Each structure stands twice: as C-alpha cells, then as structure tokens.
Amino acid sequence: MGPNRTVISAEHTRIIDMLTENGVECVTLPYENVSAFGSGPRCSTHPLIRQS
Q: Its domain of life (predicted)?
C-alpha cells in the first residue's frame, strides 16, 4: 500500500486514531466477524498455494 498507508480492521478504532495522528492513512475494512477467528486482512490475502 505504501509507507504511509495501511489496511486495518475497522473495529480497531484506538489503533486507527493513533496511526492517523502519526500521519498514516488507514484503509478500514469491516473484519469484526473474521477477526473473531484470529484472522485479519493480512492473513486473508496470503496465497494458499505457493509455486517453487
């Protein structure tokens, strides 16, 4: 995304506020239901199969 931009779950409002105060643009996603299972945007975008 870039050095001053990140993807983050929308329910992490305190972290989003802190990042924004420090010049980071936060792209938020509604991930509350997925996060309940211990996952987030980063985990969801990993490839399932990697070619060698």
A: Bacteria
